[in-house]
Design a protein that fits this description.
By secondary structure, the chain is mainly alpha-helical. It folds into three domains: 91 residues, Fumarase C, Chain B, domain 1 (Orthogonal Bundle); 203 residues, Fumarase/aspartase (Central domain) (Fumarase C, Chain A, domain 2, Up-down Bundle), CATH 1.20.200; 93 residues, Fumarase/aspartase (C-terminal domain) (Ribonucleotide Reductase Protein R1, domain 1), CATH 1.10.40.30. The protein has a two-stranded antiparallel sheet with strand order 1-2. Strands 3-4 form a two-stranded antiparallel ribbon. A hairpin with a 2-residue loop joins β1 and β2. α7 packs parallel to α19 and α14 packs across α15.
Length: 459
């Protein structure tokens, strides 16, 4: 195909340079956005009298037919075209003659691709928001199911204090809710139209930018034409949100991998989300969780790649910015794929509550409550802390839990220990007396689940 930019230069490039320069193999993905924008642009030209309204409608009708044919598979995108804009314009011209050449009046590929990317980014953000909502809902449901299931809470991967599995899952639900808010905020900021910026300086034609913006669902126009064609910070902002989503997914996946191991045996993942071994028939590998964890590097890398691409560019458009598409497409595809499998994986997992409780009992994670018992009877916390530490050392040496130590031995250490000690240091008590807002008590977990579900509805 001929180049749209033939003028001072001939349009003839070496085969290697032409292949290197072309973007059709990946930006053909923007065909729907490109045609939608072109239909509106044609109608704006007709409305403003820049071309005749009948001509505008003929162009719009031909573009709509072209889109339907490509989307149905009846027409393949010609990958000898330089880019998606070239393919659309030249295919249009082949069908309706020289009238197709009027479509590009009062615009440049610079503002055209900026428009396409904003439309695509907006659509992608909407899809990610829906997937995050589904994931948070799955976490809330699972938290409800296991709101009273006692398990060890960890710091430094060492057993620390008793919590519930529901409490733990609520933590991830809140993280993903914040991720959803970040995507929603980015979507709101990107929803301004660049079309009408032309190459960089606007146009001499009497265009109606507001008409195009409103027709395409934008909240307004970008007020500076240079900014319209050179801005990609909305992609950086979305990539930043995607990177955080991936990090949160990775942390959750890491725990699913640990918890499903023989060393923990806290959960069992559904066979729908695990694989086996080619030579070890006893294996049940958490491959989906591992892949999710592994793909985080791609998304974080995409954010760094976009920032690096932009960091030294002078205004306005530079060919470097062609790189934004593959970077963003890959990150978006990766995040969407990970979120798509995360919700059903969470929904189908089963907690082995007896193993969780056994681990909690064996970890001396009620030692803080043992110290608190004495503190509440007037002993300074630092002294109570030392006493509890000594008791834990003695219990560990004997291989017994704190509730297996006879009361007589407790009283020999401090006479303040009484019959109410064992109730005070039971795991259920340790969990349920933590009624501070956001705490591990079942009553507080229930409040968290209610607040999470309320936020889910706040779309």
């Amino acid at each position: 195909m001929a180049k749209l930019w033939e003028g001072l230069v001939s349009g003839v490039m070496s085969e290697a340079a032409d292949s290197f320069n072309a973007s059709i193999k990946f930006d053909k993905r923007l065909l729907e956005e490109d045609i939608d924008g072109s239909i509106v642009h044609a109608r704006m030209l007709g409305k403003q009298g820049i071309i005749e309204e009948a001509e505008a409608e003929k162009i719009a009708s031909a573009l709509l037919s072209l889109k339907e044919e490509v989307l149905s598979g009846a027409l393949a995108v010609d990958e000898t075209a330089e880019d998606v804009h070239t393919f659309v314009e030249q295919t249009l011209t082949a069908r309706i003659g020289s009238l197709g050449k009027k479509l590009h009046t009062a615009r440049s590929r610079n503002d055209q691709v900026a428009l396409d990317m904003r439309l695509f980014a907006r659509k992608t953000a909407g899809e990610v928001i829906e997937l995050l909502t589904s994931l948070v809902s799955a976490l809330a449901d699972k938290a409800e199911e296991y709101k009273g299931a006692v398990m060890p809470g960890y710091t430094h991967l060492q057993r620390a204090q008793p919590i519930t599995f529901g409490h733990h899952l609520c933590c991830y639900a809140y993280q993903f809710l914040r991720d959803r808010d970040r995507v929603k905020d980015a979507k709101k900021r990107l929803n301004l139209s660049p079309i009408g910026s032309a190459a960089l300086a606007g146009t001499t034609y009497p265009i109606d930018r507001a008409f195009e913006a409103k027709s395409l669902g934008f909240d307004g126009v970008i007020p500076n034409s240079l900014d319209g064609v050179s801005d990609r910070d909305y992609l950086v902002e979305l990539l930043s949100a995607f990177a955080l989503i991936s990090v949160h997914l990775s942390r959750l996946s890491e725990e699913l991998v640990l918890w499903s191991s023989w060393e923990f045996k806290f959960i069992e993942l559904s066979s729908d989300f695990t694989t086996g071994s080619s030579i070890m028939p006893q294996k049940k590998n958490p491959d989906i969780a591992e892949l999710t964890r592994g793909k985080t590097g791609r998304v974080v890398g995409s954010l760094v790649a976009m920032l690096t691409m932009l960091k030294s560019l002078p205004l306005a458009y530079n060919k470097d910015m062609q790189e934004d598409k593959e970077i963003f497409f890959d990150a978006a595809d990766t995040v969407i794929a990970c979120l798509t499998v995360a919700s059903p994986m969470i929904a189908s997992l089963r907690a082995k509550t007896e193993n969780m409780e056994k681990a909690a009992k064996e970890g001396y994670i009620n030692a803080t409550d043992l110290a608190d018992y004495l503190t509440k009877k007037g002993v300074p916390f630092r002294e109570s802390y030392k006493t509890a530490g000594a008791i834990v050392r003695a219990a560990a040496a004997k291989g017994v839990t704190l509730d297996e130590i006879p009361l007589s031995e407790y009283k020999a250490i401090d006479p303040l220990f009484g019959e109410d000690l064992y109730e005070a240091i039971s795991l259920e008590t340790c969990v349920n007396k933590r009624t501070s807002e956001g705490g591990s008590a079942v009553s507080e977990v229930e409040k968290q689940i209610v607040s999470i579900r309320k936020e889910i509805e706040n779309v």
